[in-house]
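Quick illustration, no need to memorize.
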Amino acid sequence: MTLNSSPKLGYACAYAPVPLLAAAGFSPVRVLPQGDFPDQAGRVLHDTLCPHVKKILDRALAGDLDDLSGMVFVNSCDAMRRLSDAFLARGRRATLLDLPVTGGPRSEARFAADMERLYETLCEWSGLSPDPARISAAIKAHNRLAGLLAEASRKRDLGLLSAPRFQELVNFASAHPAEDAAAEAERVLAEPPVAARPGAVPVFLFGNVLPDPEAFALFEDCGARVAGEDFCTGSRFLAPVPEGDDPFA
């Protein structure tokens, strides 16, 4: 495993352009809604917000995110936007990337410009000068990791890799540099296939956030086999980034 001394930068959404965070000189860390922390978020935001947002704020209020140099939030919903406000209101460094609500050339151009501004902001935070070569290298490392994770996903879908093991891998990959995560993925892919469970019922899971490997273990213990999923803490993290002359486009 490589020795990575880059400062950590948190993100909380699968839409975050992770290679840009790495190219700005940071080690991207997905902040997952996990851990046993006091329930304090309701004193800052409305108490009926989704548990994903509240748990991240609970972690911050408990001091569990103090090792992060900042947070990149994505305007995926109003609750996530309010979470960004809460971080800023408490003097934490944070930035918000907006998302287009329609397709088409104008939306794509605007989104590319927003990502370029995000990259420039992150470079100001790190003290590095913007460098297209670093972005290209980060995209290549990300795409290599995405390919390995996609292969692990296929093994999971075929019943050759347990669903909890796959989720452990995705969680590791979302919180470590791409090179380290790729090495871990290669180790997982080299593990012997799991034994098939007779009579296991194939199921497809979909939704938003489900990062806990124990949840997938529960499904398997109940006689199910995860034959596919669509979670932002699962397969949505595997999307490769197209390589081209303009990385933002």
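Residues 132-157 form the longest helix (26 residues).
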